[in-house]
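Quick start: read one record
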Amino acid sequence: MTPRPRATARPAVAATIAGRLLRHTAPGPQDTTGPGRDTERYIVDWAGPVDADLPDERAVQAACGLMQVHGRATGGPLPLAVDYASVVAGVLAAQGATALRIARARGLDLREVRTSVAQGALLTVGQYLAAETARDNSGSPEPGAPHAPVAAFDVPQAGGLATLETADDARVEVETLDPLAWREFWARLGVAPALAGRGWLPFQQRFATAVCPLPEELRQAARRRTPAELRAAAHHAGVSLLAVGFDPAPAVRPAPWFLTPGPASVPRARACPDTGVPGPRPAVPVSGAVLPLTGLRVVESTRRVQGPLAGHVLRMLGAEVVRIEPPGGDPMRWLPPLAGDCSARFSALNAGKPVVEADLTTAQGRDTVRALAAEADVFLHNWAPGKAAGLGLDASDLLPGRPALVYAWASGFGDAFGDRPPLGTDYLAQVHSGLAAAVRPADQPPAPSLMTLTDVLGGLVCAQGVLAALAAREVTGRGSRVDSSLVSAAALVPRPAHRVRWTALDRPLRTADGHLCLGPEARACPEAVLRLLDGAGPTAAEDLVARFARRTTEEWTARLAEAGLTATPVLTDLTALARDPAFRAAVAPPDPSTGHARPYAPWEFA
């Protein structure tokens, strides 16, 4: 049988997002995707370097692991009911186009950049991929040896969501990073400290595992209380709580980022007297190629995902990224699973960044930050609201001494809640933005995905804001302040006015040996699928699902192809990405330097 041609339809959502962001980039490139233009050009398609026929968003989510990670908490692979991978690809396309503008202004002969929805999807699962392919210190296999099975701790099974139900069937999401506040919250609901303590570890680990197997007794305690009682308990304990609504529309629609020009530039030599700042540890170069940001320096003081990912993106574009960490290093470095002597998840976002340790609670530590910022092109942080001003390290403190500096703050909520916002974490941002309702179909209760959707998208949007500011600096010579947030990133995700309704064909179908995601033609024409089933005549959804389970994934893929229909096997083991020949050009296998698999940089420049 002749192989089906690869999908050629342009990813419309990705193109729309890229165009929107490029219009918001000032002064920056316009949408230059047309042929024959003697200027910068970006191209975004579905599969990119992945050697597979991926005709739409669902196929990309199935093949690249998004369905596997999103569905962990609810028992099996499940699509995100929004075009999340396409939005990510749109941001990547805008980043590539803006980086081209910066490169050409700096004398580099680069004219075109390519990216894809598949590369965007792989970037979003990078931390999960790192964790599941990490080699432990003890008994590490040699490079090229078969991958050892990953412990159940590292590949969690269905364990439920963190969303709590109340006595009147409302739903709430709570958040705290303080174990004492967690214990106090549950104590006010009549839960014994020991029982509350059993829920703390899975609650905190949900950021890394995408599951939250809370003890059932905690869920029952919440169900005995009204929303008002839960809000009161949260208030007294210092825990953030938001009600989970059914409306997918964003509560607010902020701009992706806000750019405030800094003071007029003053001519100034880059070199400065010896400050006594300890030299950073050497970084691992991204590649031998000259990249758009080669020669630029970024200093970041960031934690968790959003801020480090923004720095990671800038590093992949060629910048040197220096991390400021507390004495002894960021505690996240030692969270399991380890790849060598470092957390695999931490390494996925921070490998190759030299480190300077500084205690920001001391004058000497703050002076270290000022000295580093005075020699940087970008200073990036995701500190809590008010912390920068309290440390004397706000934009108004640093820009006068370095007028060309781009100062970037990646926050949780921006100014959406005034001066007393909830904790600025991923899941509360999903709730406030309506994304928690949008990512699930109408027959499921609304709840945030435990995949860190807004952390990743927020980091990407922050990086694009930085690129916009650097592009503006090439024209004006002035630095600027860039403010972005998780909520401003979430607002980019298009969603319908009402939650979507799915049929059985919209969900992954279980086969005899896995799961299969039907392509757009099959989902749009269920009669064509029914004709392929054993037996004739109409069939109930339950019968359809049962009949698919009688044949293997390969058998069904072949039968559908003979009927002119596409289908994509659903990836249910992320470690397979590092072994699959189809992903050889998109995913780097574990190597001695990282100890885990990782996606390659998601752009190709020419």
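Residues 1-5, 27-38, 136-158, 268-286 have pLDDT under 50 and may be disordered.
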